[in-house]
Amino acid sequence: MNTAGLGAAEAPVEPQPGLEGLNSTPPPSRDAALGLLRRHLSRIQGGMQERFERESLPGLVAARALAAEMDGLIAAILRYSLAATAGPGRPAGFALAATGGYGRGTLAPYSDIDLLFVSDTPLDAVGRRTVEFMLYLLWDLGVKVGHATRSIAECIEDAKSDTTVQTALLDARFLEGDATAYARFEEAYTAARQEWGLGQFLHAKQIERGLRHARYGDSPYLVEPHIKEGRGGLRDLQTMYWLTRYAFGVEKMWQLVGPDSPGGGLLTAQEARAFRRAWSFLWTVRFHLHYVTGRAEERLTFDLQPVVGARMGYTRHGKQDGVERFMKHLFLTAREVVRLKRLLEPAIERAALGMPALQPAPDEMMRKAGLTLADGKLLFAPDHDIAADPAVMLRIMRVARDRGLELHPLGLRALIRNARYATRLRGQAAANVLFLDILAGKQSAHWLRALNEAGVLSSLIPEWARIVGLMQFDTYHVFTVEEHTIEAVGVLNALERGELDSIAPVASELVGQLQSRRALYAAVLLHDIAKGRGGDHSELGAGIAQDLCPRLGLSPEETETVSWLVLNHLLVSQTAFKRDIDDPKTILDLAEVVQSPERLRLLLVLTVCDMRAVGPKVWNGWKATLLREIYWRVAEVLAGGLSVPERDVRVARAREAASAALEGRPQAEVEHFLGLGYPGYWLSFDPETHARHASMIREAEATGAPLTVRTEVLEDRAVTEVTVYTADHPGLFSQIAGALAVAGASIVDARIHTMTNGMALDTFWVQDAAGGALDAPHRLARLSVMVEQALSGRMRITDEISKVKREPARLRAVTVPPRVVIDNHASNTHTVIEVNARDRPGLLHDVTAAISAQGVQIASAHVTTYGVRAVDVFYVKDLFGLKVENERKLDGLRNAVLAALTTEAKPAA
């Protein structure tokens, strides 16, 4: 509880101006008092918001000012309640205390007010009536109140078995009422805490924090952070405050500075200032969040980030937008909170519970390394000067890894305090050996994360410091750049351990065949090193790698490999998801860039690491299938095989394989089917799919059905295949795409084929919103019904699409400028149209309708989404089956697609 509260007990809160009417004799009626209080509360809230915004008050100053204003109001309400229920001059019989954040003397605009009515003995009927009268007044005022009514004995008994109650009482601050009763409560609770000891409270808070982080975000670098409960947020700062109050009775972190302070100087003056900076900055963000949303909002979502950043004065600077600068400051603050926790908590434990017994180094090697053990965990030897030997900060990581040891919290504390000395290691050969050994060693992501959080990595590699806390303002990436990079290293670790065999089988197999393993780890570390600098981060990053790798001790050959991998780290994924990998030119172009089987292996593994580290929803079976297929096709070309032989030979082989798959069917039926497909059709599917198509066509012709729709769940690819067989006509693709959107399906790929009999055989591969196959029988039936209704004209597609649920409002702040790129060099036989736009229901329907209206035939579509950004690529021909090369026609096509991107159906009212 607050020692400042004792002063308050001796001098109760004075009545606030404007509330004098509550003190009249007799007291005013309840309705009159309520009106007076409402007006006063409105003045408090409106005045505080005006001051905060006009004067740009720091959040912590505003929080304390608001709490002080509420103190006067709460005290006046209690005095009025006593007069109205117990009669003039009757003592309260209890003390009214503030608890929770309000007890600490801080209050956010829309936060709850926590109150404790504490008395020597359980309240009598008059006391209970007074408490009830007061609470109803507060509720009628619209104040959110958390409250408890306890005797002193009940407080101690409840707190003994419940650390939540212990924490609430720790924050208690006297407001009004019986000051002597409060003093007795404070004395009893102080004695009880000493009896219980810090150990149980510390253990409970650590468990509570772990559960909280698991719920609200275990990383301080999530791109939509929870300001209050997430890791590196206000609650983590409050936990440190609770621990120091419990252990030493201090109220401010400055009281822990200096050799004569409790604990003997747990913090330096610089660390105490960092604590206050973080506390004030997070409170400022919190105040803005509350005022912008008009509620107790604690999560900083995408739509709120630009608003809060602008209100706090963050504007564009150089290559960085204001919102990105604001979020970087926030993430650096969160990291600072994590570091302060690692600094302070072990010191509290050591000071309050005693220094752990240092064990002698178990062998000569560890002793010479400057390390020792305590409680079975590794830390620096007390007599070892880290400033004189900064390489010990890398040695401790390697020894911990090799011997399967944890770092002692005091070891992490020493790392943080000495991180700046890592600048002396730059370019040192011995330090380079240590760092590269850690980087390419087992569990390297774990050790890199420790070095990053301690600040050692930024001191060692100045280029790394520029991406720490750097956020990309999109909905695709879940983490900041440096956290994504460490996650990618973790994926590479997992691949080497064989943990992703079922998820990424090819990469898991290839990772053991690599000759340039160390270069691969360096490439993963550096693949996004140039983010935030403007321009193409791949090109800029390749240049940084050329300069940085020799400084890290990599050989010229390794440096060249790393630079090439950084330059091309998006090549495989962009080719797989944006190009038709059945087009021979796609494979030949990629093979020409890669040239080497080893580089292809490295690039495939790097691609998997990069994609899986973006976020949990990015990787799926369909994408894995595309990467796998493109790898084997390019590998076969590089091996001199016949992956891309002459087209006629490939068509003949595909027809032979299809004929074999139809073995047992009448020869006339087989010949009829083989005569239906043009060359492009035979090259687009495997023999099993050809056999399914033959059966489908046979049934349609036998029954004379004008439309046939079949669905097939492909579990290994995590997609559902939808095949439509009907008479071909302009706009058919667009109608089917619209129907599938109405049915809740997301199209990831499509092939469109017109057969020699004039019928269309169109195939769509679709997923649900979670990136999996649609496999429920009712959903499969709905797919077929929606397509049939759309093609028969019984469904107005545009109207139905307008009813489909839109994206959440929080995502609309992320802008995606529409862009159309037409490429006549990517394919020898087709014009390629690439569309970048904001994803929305019916986008594919609108775009393909615009393309068809220009008299252009769509041969295939490849659809990829990156958060709210859709990248759709179409391979098209003109009505004569040729590329679209007339400039006037191309301009018209581009303008029509752009118009479709900027005009969408409005949601139904």
TrEMBL record:
Protein's job: Modifies, by uridylylation and deuridylylation, the PII regulatory proteins (GlnB and homologs), in response to the nitrogen status of the cell that GlnD senses through the glutamine level. Under low glutamine levels, catalyzes the conversion of the PII proteins and UTP to PII-UMP and PPi, while under higher glutamine levels, GlnD hydrolyzes PII-UMP to PII and UMP (deuridylylation). Thus, controls uridylylation state and activity of the PII proteins, and plays an important role in the regulation of nitrogen metabolism.
Catalytic activity: [protein-PII]-L-tyrosine + UTP = [protein-PII]-uridylyl-L-tyrosine + diphosphate; [protein-PII]-uridylyl-L-tyrosine + H2O = [protein-PII]-L-tyrosine + UMP + H(+)
Annotated ranges, domain HD: 481-603
KW Phosphoprotein (keyword) present: no
Cofactor section: Mg(2+)
Membrane-crossing segments per the record: none
Record-level Gene Ontology MF annotations: [protein-PII] uridylyltransferase activity; phosphoric diester hydrolase activity
Residue ranges, annotated region (Uridylyltransferase): 1-365
Family (UniProt): Belongs to the GlnD family.
EC assignment: 2.7.7.59, 3.1.4.-
Domain notes per entry: Has four distinct domains: an N-terminal nucleotidyltransferase (NT) domain responsible for UTase activity, a central HD domain that encodes UR activity, and two C-terminal ACT domains that seem to have a role in glutamine sensing.
Activity modulation comment: Uridylyltransferase (UTase) activity is inhibited by glutamine, while glutamine activates uridylyl-removing (UR) activity.
Residues annotated as domain ACT: 721-804, 832-909
Keywords: Hydrolase, Magnesium, Multifunctional enzyme, Nucleotidyltransferase, Repeat, Transferase
GO terms for biological process, alphabetical: regulation of nitrogen utilization
Protein name (Swiss-Prot/TrEMBL): Bifunctional uridylyltransferase/uridylyl-removing enzyme
PANTHER family: BIFUNCTIONAL URIDYLYLTRANSFERASE/URIDYLYL-REMOVING ENZYME, BIFUNCTIONAL URIDYLYLTRANSFERASE_URIDYLYL-REMOVING ENZYME
InterPro entries: ACT-like_dom_sf (IPR045865), ACT_dom (IPR002912), HD/PDEase_dom (IPR003607), HD_domain (IPR006674), NT_sf (IPR043519), PII_UdlTrfase/GS_AdlTrfase (IPR013546), Polymerase_NTP_transf_dom (IPR002934), UTase/UR (IPR010043)
One Pfam family from the record: GlnD_UR_UTase
Ranges where the record places region Disordered: 1-31
Stretches of the chain forming a coiled coil according to its record: none
